[in-house]
Amino acid sequence: MQTEKYRGYTLWGHAILHQENILQRRRFAGSGTIMRDTKVVEVSGVLSSFDTDEEAESAGLSWCRAWVDSHG
Question: pTM of this prediction?
Answer without folding.
Answer: 0.90
